[in-house]
């Protein structure tokens, strides 16, 4: 009888390496998510894809948006409360973001049409380290409304955790005339979708919904998740 032990097989180095890469990939993906678990766009590590969710909130359950203030892309000072009493469309965007470029023409068009309806469009330009890129974006798509220049994302972080914060890029919030969040869209919006989410808030404020009308899709139930 042999007393020699069978040598213990060492783990395959290649298999170990692949397992480590797989684990690190899971960590990276989970790090890109938010409470609505948007996916990461493989072409741009800064872009967090929206969930496609549009949330509407009954008037009695709405939360106030923070009174953002700061410098705009054009170097002017801007404060949300400067437009108190208006419906505000707050759009988070970046010049590097493909869906932001896709939705920009519709935002430019609708913003101009709604100027006489007590509606103010305001952007939050985020993650653009060079303001020249943001200015070029505005010129290219005919954006005439102001945008906060927010390269570090500090403006977005002013929204309380657990609220209807704009947690993806692009995101759009519609604030009622009391400065409360009536609608949140975690996706890029077509011109028709933008009109649709604006219509009830404008009508609620006493304006005609005709200039913000769209196809009659039913709004999803309120969901503050």
Which descriptor suits the 3D outline? globular
- Beta strands, count: 8
Strand proportion, as a percent range, falls in 15-25%
Gyration radius, to the nearest Å? 23 Å
Describe this structure in words.
With 225 residues, this protein is α/β, with parallel strands linked by helices. It has 5 helices and 8 strands; from the N terminus they run H-E-E-E-E-H-E-H-E-H-E-E-H. The chain has helices at 13-32, 98-113, 131-141, 154-157, 191-204; strands spanning 54-56, 69-71, 77-79, 87-93, 119-126, 147-150, 171-175, 181-185. The chain has a 6-stranded mixed sheet. A hairpin with a 5-residue loop joins strand 2 (69-71) and strand 3 (77-79). The chain starts with 12 loop residues before the first helix and ends in a 21-residue tail after the last helix. Mean pLDDT is 78; it is low at 13-50 and 213-225.
Q: Any key phrases for this structure?
A:
single chain; 225 residues; alpha/beta; six-stranded mixed beta sheet; two-stranded antiparallel sheet
What is the secondary structure topology, with strand pairs?
Layout: H1 13-32, E1 54-56, E2 69-71, E3 77-79, E4 87-93, H2 98-113, E5 119-126, H3 131-141, E6 147-150, H4 154-157, E7 171-175, E8 181-185, H5 191-204
Parallel strand pairs: 4-5, 5-6
Antiparallel strand pairs: 1-8, 2-3, 4-7, 7-8
Helix pairs in contact: 2-5
What's the gist of this structure?
The protein has helices spanning 13-32, 98-113, 131-141, 154-157, 191-204; strands at residues 54-56, 69-71, 77-79, 87-93, 119-126, 147-150, 171-175, 181-185. By secondary structure, it is of the alpha/beta class.
């Amino acid at each position: 009888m042999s007393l020699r032990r069978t040598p213990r097989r060492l783990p395959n180095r290649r298999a170990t390496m692949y397992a480590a890469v797989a684990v690190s990939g899971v960590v990276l993906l989970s790090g890109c998510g938010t409470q609505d678990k948007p996916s990461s766009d493989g072409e741009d590590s800064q872009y967090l894809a929206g969930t496609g969710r549009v949330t509407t909130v009954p008037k009695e359950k709405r939360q106030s948006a923070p009174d953002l203030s700061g410098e705009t892309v054009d170097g002017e000072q801007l404060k949300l409360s400067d437009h108190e009493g208006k419906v505000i469309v707050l759009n988070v965007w970046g010049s590097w973001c493909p869906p932001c470029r896709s939705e920009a023409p519709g935002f430019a068009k609708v913003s101009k049409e709604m100027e006489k309806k007590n509606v103010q469009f305001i952007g939050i330009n985020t993650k653009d380290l060079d303001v020249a890129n943001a200015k070029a974006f505005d010129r290219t798509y005919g954006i005439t409304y102001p945008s906060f220049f927010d390269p570090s994302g500090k403006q977005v972080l002013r929204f309380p955790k657990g609220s209807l914060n704009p947690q993806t890029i692009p995101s759009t919030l519609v604030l009622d005339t009391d400065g409360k969040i009536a609608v949140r869209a975690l996706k890029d919006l077509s011109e028709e979708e933008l009109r649709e989410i604006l219509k009830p808030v404008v009508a609620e404020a006493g304006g005609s919904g005709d200039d913000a009308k769209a196809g009659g899709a039913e709004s999803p139930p309120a969901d503050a998740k």
